[in-house]
Specification:
Helix content is 61%, strand content 0%. It has 276 residues and is mainly alpha-helical.
């Protein structure tokens, strides 16, 4: 396993409430692409998938839609991959993750509706990350998936929305969220952070709630890096934290309110209307 003593030692200190950073997320991502060795460098692809997914959904909805600059897959590649979906050779094109090919196949076969695109693509990505050979990657994205799903389930419960159709994925936590009527969805042992999320949900301040959720992520990342202080895990953990700080640098109370309203609106739009 490669050790990155120089790279880790040179990282500026950051904290969840920082309002300014000396090293930007995009700049740091570029530095990692140069600093990391072959196998470790490929791990960065998992952390770019958020932007690749955003670009793919945007492109599917509007072929002229601008692409997020942190996504590396060109619109022409999306087009070529979609065109090749019906071919016997189902190997993804260079640079296209396998889960995207699976997603395009489902669209081609008509097994996923337009209003399910985002959740389905995200679920396929989490399955893809779960198969990574790197434990940090597997565990972090599983944690992220569970944390997000619990938040969504609590919002659905609070506003009387259907939980089952909003949960992304099908792991053990997902199953509990879809079926349990317990206050904590029966997750106190399987996902102990559920108690903290229940308390956070009582906070009337929207941005305060978001900051507390981010603190859960920071605490998780701190624990995950114990024993890996100079390995690729430490560098990837820093990447996630830096992304969190940059997000907060662009948020204010008004944007926080809009973000929350968008979440609830999206949940309502994605509710399936049963056929008569």
């Amino acid at each position: 396993m490669s050790q990155y003593y120089y790279e880790v030692a040179g990282l500026p200190d950051i904290a969840p409430d920082d309002v300014k950073v000396s090293l930007g997320y995009e700049e740091y991502l570029s530095e990692l692409m140069t600093a990391l060795s072959g196998r470790d460098a490929r791990l960065l692809g998992y952390f770019r998938c958020k932007y690749e997914n955003t670009n793919l959904i945007s492109w599917l909805r509007d072929k002229e839609s601008p692409m997020h600059p942190l996504g590396l897959i060109a619109p022409e590649t999306f087009a070529n991959q979609l065109q090749a979906v019906g071919c016997d050779d189902m190997t993804p094109l260079a640079g296209v993750p396998a889960y995207m090919l699976e997603f395009m196949r489902e669209i081609d076969e008509g097994t996923v509706s337009r209003n399910e695109w985002e959740n389905r693509l995200t679920a396929l990505f989490y399955d893809y990350a779960a198969a990574s050979r790197n434990a940090f990657v597997r565990d972090w994205f599983a944690f992220e998936q569970n944390l997000s799903n619990v938040q969504v389930a609590l919002s659905c419960r609070k506003y009387g929305l259907d939980i089952e159709t909003q949960i992304v994925g099908d792991n053990e936590v997902c199953q509990a969220l879809r079926t349990s009527t317990a206050r904590d969805f029966g997750l106190s042992e399987l996902f102990p952070q559920v108690e903290t999320l229940l308390r956070i949900g009582e906070d009337a301040d929207l941005l305060s709630r978001e900051r507390k959720v981010d603190q859960i992520k920071w605490d998780y990342l701190s624990d995950a890096c114990i024993g890996h202080e100079f390995s690729v895990e430490a560098l990837l953990s820093y990447l996630v934290r830096l992304q969190s700080i940059e997000r907060w640098m662009h948020l204010d109370p008004k944007q926080g309110e809009e973000m929350f309203r968008t979440l609830i609106s999206t949940l309502k739009e994605n509710v399936r209307i049963p056929e008569e």
